[in-house]
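Predict the 3D structure for this chain.
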Amino acid sequence: MNESEQAIRLQRPVDTLIDSFINGEKKFLDQNGTPYIKVELRDSQLTTFSLESQQAKDYLRGKARFQLKRALSATELATIIEELSSETRRLGSSEKVWRRCGKIQDTLYYDLCNAAGEVVIVQPSHWEITCSNNINFSRYNCMREQVKPIQGGDWKKLWNFTNLKSEEDNLLLIVLVASMFLPDIQHPILSVDGVMGSGKSTFLQVLKRLIDPSYEELQMLPTKTEDLALQLERHHFLAFDNLSYLPRNFSDILCQAVTGGTYSKRKLYTNGEIYTVRFSGGNIALNGINRVINRSDLVDRSIMFELARLLPEKLIGNQSFWERFHTELPSILGGIFSLLSNAMNHLPDNEVKFQGRMTDFQRWGVAITQAMGYSKDHFNRAYGQNLDNAFEENTNSHPLCQAIQRLLSEHDPLEDTVGNVHQKLTIIASDLGVVSDPRWPKHSNLLIKQLKELQFNLELSDIKFQILERSCAGRKILLERLKR
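Done. Predicted structure below.
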């Protein structure tokens, strides 16, 4: 820039302000490529927020008002944000940004979201509350401040506010809740069902207030997949209330949210710029009177609880319940952090192999169970039984499995063309009253796809299917019961 251009630039106070922002605040891209700045707001405490956020706009307006002695116009504010974003992308520095829970090497961090910027730091055999500028936490306006946990707390008090049916379920609940304070590992989706009056919504509210307090406690399932992806990005723990059905495309996104994946869409319809959300170990819970998780790949990523109906003598007023819970919350939270710090000393060696998709959760599950005072076999049995029960119920409730069971009770084995088999199964499904179920294959060309998805479920019921070579009459399939 020559002297004349520099003189012209200095005549515009906003350009001077842009230069001060560019040369002052720390700027970087997060894991999704979103520009962030890290600024000091009070008492040497650094705060991180996206340049696309309302927080950034408020901060830039406040600083401009201090330096320029006037308010910024909307055009000036947009120019400053674009200049800062452009410079951040040009520099290319990248850092991880966390929501509520984060990790640096072997140290866990939990953001209390208070004005003092305090975090809980969890290390082997020790945890404490402190202020730390070593880690980047992003705070959305929906996030609420968490109470301060106390040393010597008791995680067992959580059971006083839940109504699970068995000791195994109680154990799995503590393991699952404790694991949700661990970032970047797979967390099974929590599916809760039960009759009306079993406290399903309250159950999820308890967990939300314990793990990730928010002004948006229980969510309705959105109608668009991109809205679901944005909800997953905004919340460390996301709870969906009163579901009756889970569409296939939503089930696919939830699978990715558990074990990792990406969701991409265009930022604006006027250009080709892509916004990408990277999923990594999302914490998700949902409830309904009936179980809404019915696809095998999602069942395999879930833990399912059925709540007991609350007896009249155990019912207390809503206000009294929450007063008791918030009184015990600092102790429960402190007990969870103590449990995690002790579990770090019980982590199995990486050489220990686990089966299935949820290997990180299983590894930590063993460690947390031992820190609770149980043997590692307690966790393996409880988790394995929960999965077996979920698959068995999913099999018995699936309309296609029901129709095949009925068909093979009359014709075993059955070898016929895909079209003929689909026709016979549809007649049976009509008799059973399940042909209107959204999971029913409406056309014969969907039958083989459904059978492949249900292969594991069918084998649990001792049923085998085989796709045979194409004949002049069309492709044939064989259905038969396994001989034990």
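The chain has 16 helices and 17 strands.
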